Amino acid sequence: xxxxxxxxxxxxxxxxxxxxxxxxxxxxxxxxxxxxxxxxxxxxxxxxxxxxxxxxxxxxxxxxxxxxxxxxxxxxxxxxxxxxxxxxxxxxxxxxxxxxxxxxxxxxxxxxxxxxxxxxxxxxxxxxxxxxxxxxxxxxxxxxxxxxxxxxxxxxxxxxxxxxxxxxxxxxxxxxxxxxxxxxxxxxxxxxxxxxxxxxxxxxxxxxxxxxxxxxxxxxxxxxxxxxxxxxxxxxxxxxxxxxxxxxxxxxxxxxxxxxxxxxxxxxxxxxxxxxxxxxxxxxxxxxxxxxxxxxxxxxxxxxxxxxxxxxxxxxxxxxxxxxxxxxxxxxxxxxxxxxxxxxxxxxxxxxxxxxxxxxxxxxxxxxxxxxxxxxxxxxxxxxxxxxxxxxxxxxxxxxxxxxxxxxxxxxxxxxxxxxxxxxxxxxxxxxxxxxxxxxxxx
Length: 443
What we know:
Blueprint: H1 12-25, H2 37-44, H3 48-60, E1 64-66, E2 72-74, E3 95-96, H4 111-123, H5 135-147, E4 155-158, H6 161-172, E5 178-183, H7 187-195, E6 199-206, E7 209-210, H8 212-220, E8 225-229, H9 242-252, E9 259-263, E10 283-289, H10 291-294, E11 301-305, H11 307-319, H12 326-337, H13 343-363, E12 375-379, H14 383-392, E13 395-396, E14 398-399, E15 410-414, H15 423-434
Parallel strand pairs: 3-13, 5-6, 5-8, 8-9, 9-10
Antiparallel strand pairs: 1-2, 4-11, 6-7, 10-11, 12-15, 14-15
């Protein structure tokens, strides 16, 4: 069952540590089946309950998955092997369109904002026991949420979107619960869910967001939560349309107990209106990051939600990190108040690049997707071959395996580092690798 490897340990923690270590070193591989509880207990001369406890620890850590009578096996992508390790070395001279980063030229300078934050700190330093959220930031954030039709709710802060999503999930879910996730979808989220001991249930997406029939199937199968990217979906660029959002809200109305998380991480750099699912169920949260529009290193995301969800997340945050730096909060306030970023101009800059690339690919018979945001998704028949072929032609792209569970192969192209003059050469390279009439789909 495990080849020549022999599991060791006497206590549950020792057994779990041995298996996890073997996965990390490659002695055990994704898909390897673990011995049945009683069989391993007999080999180790321990109580079967000890082995059961070890397997629970491994499941909670995202190392193994269990399937009832079919037993337990190493996950296809254990938490010890994050998707961001699926990358390629970019040789000198190659153009790197794989990173997913924003264009630094479109990010605002931070010198004045940080100086204003420091001056404010000199007058009124943030100390223990103070409010975790700056009052002016909360006011501005809530006003922006109101303008987009997001249901009323208190505002909280975390260090980035993934931090917020993790805290919201753990506020309501327990290991073993199922979470509906987009497929293709954000690789970090696809890693996070199993790392929390939760079970990801992939849901197909098209240009208008999660496919309604797929969400209905997931709900019927008993998922406890649904995570949806409202705009600028990574990697496909999908954006929830008004009709699709209405369909999903009607569907969710019959599942009021399901937790819904809206991810609006590209707020500030898209020109499509927000169509969120917040409020369709009793437990919900909407997360907005400052990373893409103002700079990844600011490490600040705001969230709102129903009162219970926000209260739970705030309470747990207070026991750990405590709060997000008020220096960063005041810097963001200054950037918002001074209009340091023009959302329309930023959206136009990314949109022109994205549309030019989509048009060039279409003229060459290549199907691609990118309704919003800074990425274009190209379905391919052979992912490895496409990545290698493009690299030979001087273009480093992101392998689709970073973003997939069951969906078809593809590659992600980030338009941020490109000029309009780059689009024709890149499209030529993609068409040459895929061949004429290269059609594809998400599924």
